[in-house]
């Protein structure tokens, strides 16, 4: 994908925000309308109007029981129409306690796209970013697992350990993946 094409994508996304958001909401509702969580509000409909009218704004504590049920082994479809593959672990800085957030492979696909857009924007002003002329410190931590066996890790670790990162089209980091993916920070920082 060329720099020009990626910047064109960014321009399209930012100049047509309402349509992009409406399309994304429609896609999310179609995928998730039959979940246990949304059925109580939408009755298996994917109507945006019904969503806006019936689905309340919630806090983490409101959805935590659903997240915990999946973490403990119940099927993902109680909460999402896509299979949950990982849980991200928050830093715990906002409430003093770490939280877990369910993630599916679509998230990793979106991260690759966002990374490409960011790199394209930066490349417009800094020559050589695609050839590894940028310093970035990527640290990974060991994974833990939920009772159901799904991996739990901070966002950066989950992304760096994913096949999406390992198989990325551009190897734009100077450090070899073996260093980036080393969970012993004393070794990888050496």
TrEMBL record:
InterPro entries: GH3 (IPR004993)
Pfam families per the UniProt record, alphabetical: GH3 (PF03321)
Domain of life: Eukaryota
Keywords of the record: Coiled coil
Segments forming a coiled coil: 3-30
Full protein name: At1g48690
Source species: Arabidopsis thaliana
């Amino acid at each position: 994908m060329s720099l020009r094409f990626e910047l064109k994508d960014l321009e399209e996304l930012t100049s047509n925000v309402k349509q992009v958001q409406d399309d994304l909401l429609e896609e999310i509702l179609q995928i998730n309308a039959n979940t246990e969580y949304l059925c109580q509000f939408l009755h298996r409909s994917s109507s945006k109007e019904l969503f806006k009218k019936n689905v309340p704004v919630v806090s983490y504590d409101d959805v935590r029981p659903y997240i915990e049920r999946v973490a403990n082994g119940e099927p993902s479809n109680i909460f999402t129409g896509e299979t949950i593959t990982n849980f991200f672990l928050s830093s715990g800085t906002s409430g003093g306690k770490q939280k877990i957030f369910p993630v599916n492979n679509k998230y990793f696909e979106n991260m690759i796209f966002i990374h490409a857009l960011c790199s394209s924007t930066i490349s417009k002003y800094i020559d050589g970013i695609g050839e590894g002329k940028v310093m970035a410190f990527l640290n990974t931590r060991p994974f833990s697992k939920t009772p159901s066996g799904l991996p739990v890790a901070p966002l950066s670790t989950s992304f760096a350990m994913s096949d999406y990162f390992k198989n990325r089209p551009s190897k734009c980091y100077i450090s070899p993946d073996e260093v980036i993916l080393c969970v012993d920070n004393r070794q990888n920082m050496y």
